[in-house]
Amino acid sequence: MAFLKGDFEFTGSMGNVTGYKLPGIKDTVIRTKGGASKKKIYKADNFKLTRQNFTEFSGCGKMGGAIRRSMLPMVPMADYNFTPVLNSFSKTIQLLDSESLRGERNIYLSRHKHLLNGFSLNRNIAFESIIRHPLKARIDAHAGKADVQLPELMPGVNLVLNRQAPMFRFVINLGSVADALYTSRGYLIENIEGCCTYSGWYHATQLFSATELSVELNNFSAQPDRTLILSLGIQMGTPITDAVINPLKYGGCAKIIAIG
C-alpha cells in the first residue's frame, strides 16, 4: 500500500494506477491495477470457490433487496442505507442451509423469520426512545393482514419526539417475501408484495388518543415459503397550508415489529 502526499491529489484511475480514500486515513491511497482477468475468474478451476461465492452473494443481494422493496414506504424514515445490512442478514440465513451444495445454498427466510424481528431502520435514534410504551401487534398469516394497537401517548411522557418538525403520523406496512431458491437460472424470488396504511397527522404537543391501525395485502394467498413482515414507523412533517402537510425526508424512525 502506498500513499500520495503533496499538492497533487486524485481519486479514480490514471493509467495503471488507482487512487482512493479510506476511512481514518488522511492521505490518498494508491495501488497499481492487476489481478486475474475476468475470463480466468469465470473459467479457471482454481477460481471455482470464487465463482461459488459470487453466485451465493447474488442470492443474498436479491433477498436483501426483496425485503427492502416489501417495505418501501418505510424507507423515508430510515437514517442510513440499511440494504447492505439486510444482505448480510440474508447471508446468515443462507449459511443455515446445510442440505444444498456450496454455491447453491438457498435462503429459507420462512424457516428463520424470527431472526428478522426487531430490525431497525435507524442508527441515530431508537424507536423505543420515541414511543416509550409497549405496542401490541398481530399478524393473520392466513388472511394476509395485520393490525397494531397504539396506546394513548402523552408528549414528554411516553411520546418523546426529537422536535424535527411540529407534526407526526404513524405508518404501518405489511410485506410478503418468498424464500430465495437456487435454480439453473440463478436465484429467484417471486411475487414480492407490500401494502401500507397511514394515520392522520397529529401535532407533536397534543395528546394522542389510543387507536388501532390495520393493513391488508391485496389478493393474498398464504404459502408455506412466504414470510410476512410488519413494520411500524413514525414520520415527521411540516405544514405547508392548514390542510397540507409535507413529510420530512429522513425524519422519524421505523422498525420491524412482528413477523408472520
TrEMBL record:
It comes from the Bacteria. This is Uncharacterized protein.
